[in-house]
Design goal:
It is a single chain. It contains 2 helices and 10 strands. It is mainly beta and 173 residues long. It has a single domain, classed as Lipocalin, CATH 2.40.128. Strand 2 and strand 3 form a beta hairpin. The chain starts with a helix and ends with a strand.
Length: 173
């Protein structure tokens, strides 16, 4: 396959991830790692109390990347260890176009639906970072930037070149 076609296809897949990228962040697909690939990420040890610090995530959000079209998401704690995420087809938020989950099971926090595809590898008082399985896909960090704003920072490798995209989220009434 022509490398430029492969890169164009990867960019299209990443762009298609904008709605609900914040949960799945893996639309690029999983790859089987080569035998000499880096080890699998080490999951952070997460407690229910740790997860509760992210209640700021609950609510309805308008997201955008610089120069891109807006998208709409909402997040809701379904119980003390599960966050549901919903992508909406437009600002009316009446028709969900996708759903996802962030699950705390044991002391491991994972993201993806229906199968976990990312694992939390770092948490602090204002952010959580999810890593991809060994050798596959992108990573993302959610970070609160104020009472009604946060950002999702996606990072990935594109043919040996580190890439990054930042989605800014604003709370909707």
């Amino acid at each position: 396959m022509n490398p430029s076609n492969r890169h164009a296809r990867s960019r299209r897949r990443l762009a298609a991830c904008a709605p609900i990228i914040l949960v799945f962040a893996g639309c690029g697909g999983e790859r089987t790692p080569p035998p000499d690939a880096a080890p699998a990420p080490t999951p952070a040890r997460v407690t229910v109390a740790d997860l509760q610090r992210f209640r700021w995530l609950e609510g309805r959000w308008r997201g955008a990347v610089e120069g891109g079209a807006p998208f709409f998401e909402s997040y809701q704690f379904l119980d003390d260890s599960t966050i549901g995420s919903f992508a909406w087809s437009d600002s009316t938020m009446t028709v969900a176009s996708d759903t996802g989950r962030i699950w705390l099971r044991g002391d491991s926090l994972t993201s993806g639906w229906p199968t976990p595809q990312r694992v939390a590898t770092a948490l602090d008082s204002v952010s959580m970072h999810f890593s991809a399985p060994r050798g596959g896909g992108n990573e993302f960090t959610w970070r609160t930037t104020g009472p009604d704003a946060w950002e999702a920072r996606l990072t990935w490798d594109s043919a040996g070149v580190p890439r990054e995209r930042i989605y800014r989220m604003q709370r909707l009434p």
